[in-house]
Specification:
- The longest helix has 16 residues.
- The radius of gyration is 18 Å and the shape is globular.
- The strands form five sheets. It has a six-stranded mixed beta sheet. A five-stranded mixed beta sheet has the order 9-10-11-12-13, covered by helices on one side.
- It starts with a strand and ends with a strand.
- It is built from six helices and 17 strands.
- The protein has one domain: Metallo-beta-lactamase, Chain A (4-Layer Sandwich), CATH 3.60.15.
Length: 248
């Protein structure tokens, strides 16, 4: 039941005073038993072209993805589920009910994406425990959203896809979150996440807006890999007159 996880789109730990949440969230590809190919979160609409390019680089077509596991229904984690025509879309059932009940215009909720998902015949409603996908379980981690879930994949090493329970190293280290609907519940969820992580020696934690992390000998989260983030901007009067900003 071993899964191998790769980062497709790298998450970024930041936001803009002028543009609000950037929504630059992590999307991961997981290959597992019985030929299963899973996507962990689906990302925002603005990342769709990049996501398709990254899948192509990995030799995976959208129709080959068997499962999409969505941790919560904020726009930057779920908008691209329609890209995968044959996949079962796994989503926390209580989160879906909550999101569908919100009025139009609720911040962070892509209402039409969510309502289409609720009517999708390939929808599978998750609750804590087995997901129905061999070697993958999930557990409740509310706070950032009311019914956020964490996905755990068996493997060497195990992978914990925490998404926005702890979006980055700072939230893991401090136990406090920058964006939370219920700070007390969120704090408890981060504590549970740390406990689940420590119970799996060598496990890789994939955060929603950071590099993958492992625990060092002192129990501190340490980033794996190299951060890559640039922005090209055009402030002049020609397309050749551009400036690249390195945000890494």
């Amino acid at each position: 039941m071993s899964w191998r996880v790769e980062i497709l789109v790298q998450g970024y730990p930041g936001k803009s005073k002028e543009q609000g949440g950037l929504g630059w969230s992590t999307i991961a590809l997981a290959r597992g038993p019985e030929g299963r190919i899973a996507l962990l979160d689906a990302g925002r609409l603005g990342a769709r072209k990049l996501l398709l390019e990254k899948l192509k680089e990995k030799g995976v077509g959208p129709e080959e993805v068997t499962d999409v596991l969505i941790t919560h229904l904020h726009y930057d984690h779920c908008e691209n589920w329609p890209v995968f025509p044959r996949a079962t879309i796994h989503v926390p059932g209580a989160e879906l009910d909550w999101a569908c009940a919100q009025p139009l215009g609720t911040p962070m909720i892509p209402e039409f994406t969510v309502r289409a998902l609720a009517e999708c015949p390939r929808l599978h409603r998750l609750k804590e425990g087995p997901t129905g996908v061999p070697g993958i379980t999930c557990f409740d981690a509310p706070g950032h959203s009311p019914h956020h879930m964490v996905v755990v994949l068996e493997g060497e090493p195990p992978t914990i896809f925490s998404s926005d329970v702890a979006k980055n190293r700072a939230e893991l280290a401090t136990g406090r979150a920058d964006i939370s609907m219920d700070p007390a519940a969120h704090k408890a969820s981060i504590a549970r996440l740390r406990s689940e992580w420590q119970a799996r020696p060598g496990a890789v934690l994939v955060a929603g807006h950071d590099l993958p992390l492992v625990l060092d000998a002192r129990g501190r989260p340490v980033a794996q890999g190299e951060r890559r983030m640039t922005i090209d901007a055009w402030f002049g009067e020609s397309l050749e007159d551009s400036k690249r900003f390195d945000l890494s």
